[in-house]
């Protein structure tokens, strides 16, 4: 019997793509996967086709930890056009309402105050959130509006950058689940003139450094040289996806037990609780575990490797 053919390399890590405008996050992820010849890939929170900027792409074993980046804080720089609302709340949609813009900078600064901190936001119809198993955008394209519940989000920072009527530029630091298009649309309503997104760039995900991003053109040019080892040098370690979690170093015996999926009790001198990222006695990242009140390490996500 012939062995099943492998579909790609066992390459693991996180690639920070500077997503180009005009491509969906899934399409560009598949292209990156092919260039790396990886067996598995997953992105960590979609950017609209209009948007550019940081899109962490998890390859191989890193896909097991993509949820941590989905849940991470994000930063954006957004430019909005005041005076027009669109059906998608961005420049790719159809203009549905036009109003005069009689807005001063002082009014904008006052309006921004009510969007800082813990707020409720009703997701846009043009989103991938699902209703009865179908993405909301499918209903929207069919002209159907679905009632959506407001969801709690946090706007950690909302900074005024520039206003040259009718264009307003802001910097946003927000929690997961925040729709920048909705934020801009809501702000436009508070200002009484309507607004939509014209430019959107994600500048940060979690603590990943901006300088580690690579453009699609640069990645293609490097791939054309045919040296996969050069590509691999641009992958960040898997554990960077969970860098916010406390670190725990195991001894040899504990490492062996965890490798078999066993729960391991330890002294816990640091009094760790909750989720941790843990490493073997050889300082190899093993995965994420939960430490309970009895100082027992309960593995949750494990790297598939030999200890």
Automatic annotation (TrEMBL):
The active site of this protein is located at 48
The record places domain tRNA pseudouridine synthase II TruB subfamily 1 C-terminal at: 246-303
Q: Name one GO molecular function term.
A: RNA binding
Every copy of the tRNA pseudouridylate synthase B C-terminal domain together lies at 181-242
Q: Which family does it belong to?
A: Belongs to the pseudouridine synthase TruB family. Type 1 subfamily.
Which EC class is the enzyme in? isomerase
UniProt xrefs under InterPro entries: PsdUridine_synth_cat_dom_sf, PsdUridine_synth_N, PUA-like_sf, PUA_sf, tRNA_psdUridine_synth_TruB, tRNA_sdUridine_synth_fam1_C, TruB_C
Its Gene Ontology biological processes?
Answer: mRNA pseudouridine synthesis; tRNA pseudouridine synthesis
- Highest rank taxon of the organism: Bacteria
Catalytic activity from the UniProt record: uridine(55) in tRNA = pseudouridine(55) in tRNA
- Functional note: Responsible for synthesis of pseudouridine from uracil-55 in the psi GC loop of transfer RNAs.
The protein, known as: tRNA pseudouridine synthase B
Keywords, A to Z, come to:
Isomerase, tRNA processing
Cite the Pseudouridine synthase II N-terminal domain residue spans from the record.
33-180
Q: What is its EC number?
A: 5.4.99.25
Pfam families, alphabetically?
TruB-C_2, TruB_C_2, TruB_N
């Amino acid at each position: 019997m012939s062995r099943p053919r492998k579909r790609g390399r066992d390459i693991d890590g996180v690639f920070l793509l500077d997503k180009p405008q005009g491509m969906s996050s899934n399409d560009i992820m598949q292209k990156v996967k092919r260039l790396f010849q990886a067996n598995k890939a997953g992105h960590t929170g979609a950017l609209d086709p209009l948007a550019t900027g940081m899109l962490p792409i998890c390859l191989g074993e890193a896909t097991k930890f993509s949820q941590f980046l989905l849940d991470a804080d994000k930063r954006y720089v957004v430019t909005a056009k005041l005076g027009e609302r669109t059906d998608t709340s961005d420049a790719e949609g159809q203009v549905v309402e036009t109003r005069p813009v009689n807005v001063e900078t002082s009014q904008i600064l006052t309006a921004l105050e009510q969007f800082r901190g813990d707020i409720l936001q009703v997701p846009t119809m043009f989103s991938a959130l699902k209703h009865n198993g179908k993405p909301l955008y499918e209903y929207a394209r069919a002209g159907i509006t679905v009632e959506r519940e407001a969801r709690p989000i946090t706007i950690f920072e909302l900074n005024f950058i520039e206003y040259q009527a009718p264009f307003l530029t802001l910097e946003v630091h927000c929690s997961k689940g925040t729709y920048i298009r909705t934020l801009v649309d809501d702000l436009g309503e508070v200002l009484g003139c309507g607004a939509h997104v014209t430019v959107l760039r994600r500048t940060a995900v979690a603590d990943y450094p901006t300088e580690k991003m690579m453009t699609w053109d640069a990645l293609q040019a490097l791939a054309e040289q045919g040296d996969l080892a050069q590509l691999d040098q641009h992958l960040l370690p898997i554990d960077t996806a969970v860098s916010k979690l406390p670190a725990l170093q195991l001894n040899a015996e504990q490492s062996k037990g965890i490798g078999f999926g066993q729960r391991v009790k330890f002294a816990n001198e640091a009094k760790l609780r909750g989720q941790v990222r843990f490493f073997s006695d050889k300082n190899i990242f093993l995965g994420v575990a939960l430490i309970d009140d009895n100082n027992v390490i309960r593995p949750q996500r494990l790297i598939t490797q030999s200890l």
